[in-house]
Amino acid sequence: MKKSSFLFAVLLAAFSFLIWNNEAHATPLTYGDQIVKPLTWPKNSTLNVYIQKDPKEKGRDQLVKEGVERWKATMAARMITINVTIGDPPAGTENEVHYKWEAEDFRFDNLRKLRLGEFDGAGVAGYSRERLLIGKAFIHRDLPSENDAQKEYIRNLGEHEMTHILGMADDGNGSVTNHTQPNTARALNEQDTKEINLLYGTADTGGDNKPQGMGAKIGGGASDGFYKYHFVFQPGNPLVDPTDPEHVSLINLGIDPSIVIGADLPPGWISLINPGVPSPSDPFFDGYMEDGVGDPSVWDPLNPISYIAFRTSPEKALQDGLSPSFDPALTLDNSSFDITVFTKPGVIDQPISLWAGGELQFAEGPVLVPEPSSLFLLIFGLAGFLMWNFRISFVGRGQ
Prior knowledge:
The protein is of the alpha+beta class. The chain folds into 2 domains: 158 residues, Collagenase (Catalytic Domain); 162 residues, no CATH class. It is built from 8 helices and 14 strands. The strands form 3 sheets. Strands 2-1-3-5-4 form a 5-stranded mixed β-sheet.
């Protein structure tokens, strides 16, 4: 291998966050680095949403606009302003969301059927470093709008894609967050509100407080082959308000999935990422994750996922014998539970990142023991990068 190619490979592994922080997907997961906190637009943001003009001039741009505007009051209560305009965004616009007709440049492998008419829409959000800058949604250009039902379907689709641009995934028990789009008018239900509150705080507190599962390791370790974590629900509202419901339905642990061989989960919970070595034929995704599978695939060995995630599932809740009216997430009614992660040999105990609502936390977890050769290459690559960077700076000052 040429020296330049070798150095590039090492730097790619060491500084992958510089590459991957240019784009992300509007699901609860962030691929390519150790950050496991979902992407959200910062409090007091103004999202400027631009709806591309209907290429067939059938007024569907106005229908999408009306659907997106349904979010205005909901997000204003959480200190997020949404402005919606028909037309293309001006150059250099920040905090921009762009709805486009058909996805000529849409790069999601599992949604390339969009252009074949098998999917009607898809949402994705991009960000730069720790701050969202741009969001994109794509609507199929051949959707009919001849009658009231078809028009309502387009409104609902425009509204639903904001679910992903705001950072939420599909939820089978939701109305607006549900992946299946009806052709009749709908409104946010309790499940929708719980999902919104998880990422954007509660309406009662002006978007200040978010529900959180306080997590801590309570058993196991590298010598035991398992790690047991205990989670306790901490509501965002100081007083219980049934009209402003909260829960924690997603938990992310900064554990390399290649060292995981299984997990013991609470009833109604599933793994979003299959423990062990996943394959394209066994992606182990629930339906609400399909909007967020990226290109390159999340199973790309050159860009391995660096953490595991768990999520509530309506189907799994029924399989586990839970009542359809019971929320298996962390709530005041289900205020604590444990998750146990079983690991392969060859790990050591190190602090890992943990997200269960609110801010990132840290707990002891399994980390692969680095191979001496890999560690040497990484140090060598970092040293080479610093020397190369210093040379450029020195030459620049001399000119």
